[in-house]
Design a protein that fits this description.
single chain; 358 residues; alpha/beta; TIM Barrel; eight-stranded parallel beta barrel; 12 strands
């Protein structure tokens, strides 16, 4: 007897394994891919391992206080916990840090030269290539798969915010773009994810204008921002940079009310639209002092997601910070205040990058 599709399909579906998680739990796993957690001291709290098992963690960010003799073992424990989780997605968690070079290094080891020293080398491209290799080597040895570098800020005056610690390659956009793209190619060829920062640029920020500590407004014209500050991103995108980190400064030339990471104009129209970036976007620290007017950290995570940011950096060294961000995104997806279709595109972008990690 030949069964009709109307009879056969329901019968076959009845034989399929039934989901063991609720829709809300499934949603929290998807949201988890978007949130980076942090923890205090050398040993992660047990609750972080619980959240990893539940699939609510997309990765961790490490600071100097987390770096000790057993760091590699700790990272492997977190990765093993995820691999053994029922929510394992087939690729490792992101494990990231700031190994820019010079003074800004969370781990001992290369690159020892600062970005400024590299930009002043007789052959900046060659020096930046070696810089990227050195960063990758240091991170790989520690089982870290993601570097929040290079900085693509184009400083204006000696002693400015990105210059006084040597974080900027140059006050010349071409040099910054050349060095940044060379760094990216070398680092990503070695299997380490790169994130160019801080879009659209903090090069015009004065020495005391630190978005980690206070609100910052950069009044450069749109013409200057495009010709000077965002110009290096063209080369970085052409080099295949995996991620771009947004700035928390406000740039009135395009959006007078929102920091870049909360601004659809900067993220969706300028970075993705005009510059054609197809990769993953990541915020700077959600607890930054620049965001004091924008509610608590969870609310800031929602604002960033609504603007089109893919990954949210909960880096206050408090596991509950990341947990609160996951919770508000789940609730917002359920009530429609966060667009599910666009959010899911971000999930796909994130997983495409995750699959690059060995």
């Amino acid at each position: 007897m030949k069964l009709s599709k109307q009879i056969l399909l329901p019968f076959l579906l009845s034989l399929a394994p039934q989901a063991t998680t609720s829709p809300t739990e499934d949603l929290s796993v998807q949201v988890g891919h978007h949130v980076i957690f942090s923890y205090p001291g050398l040993e992660p709290p047990s609750h972080l391992f619980d959240l990893v098992t539940q699939g609510k963690v997309g990765g961790i960010i490490l600071f100097g206080e987390n770096v000790g003799e057993n760091l590699s073992t700790t990272i492997e424990q977190l990765q093993n916990t995820y691999r053994n989780s029922p929510h394992y997605a087939g690729s490792p968690l992101f494990v990231m840090t700031d190994q820019e070079g010079g003074q800004i290094r969370r781990l001992p080891g290369g690159p020892e030269s600062s970005a400024k020293q590299v930009g002043q080398a007789s052959n900046p491209r060659k020096a930046a290539t070696q810089m990227g290799k050195d960063a990758a080597s240091t991170l790989e040895a520690a089982k870290i798969n993601f570097n929040l570098a290079p900085v693509l800020d184009v400083y204006r005056k000696p002693g400015d915010f990105t210059d006084h610690t040597g974080r900027s390659f140059s006050n010349n956009s071409d040099v910054v773009g050349t060095c940044g793209s060379a760094f990216i190619k070398a680092q990503q060829s070695a299997g380490i994810i790169s994130s160019a920062k801080h879009f659209p640029g903090l090069g015009a920020a004065g020495a005391t204008e630190n978005t980690d500590l206070q609100p910052v407004t950069i009044d450069s014209s749109l013409e200057v921002l495009r010709s000077v500050d965002t110009a290096p991103y063209k080369k970085a995108i052409a080099a295949g940079v995996d991620m771009v980190m947004s700035s928390w400064a406000i740039y009135p030339a395009l959006d007078a009310q929102h920091p870049s990471g909360f601004s659809k104009a900067w993220i969706q129209h300028e970075l993705r639209g005009r510059l054609g970036f197809k990769g993953v976007t990541i915020t700077d620290a959600l607890e930054a002092g620049a965001l004091e007017a924008f509610g608590d950290d969870a609310s800031r995570g929602l604002l960033a997601s609504q603007a089109g940011m893919d990954i949210l950096l909960a880096s206050s060294r408090n596991v509950t910070q990341g947990e609160s961000v996951v919770d508000i995104l789940v609730a917002s997806l359920k009530d429609g205040s966060l667009d599910m279709e666009y959010f899911t595109l971000g999930t796909k972008r994130i997983m495409e990058v995750r699959r690059k990690i060995v």
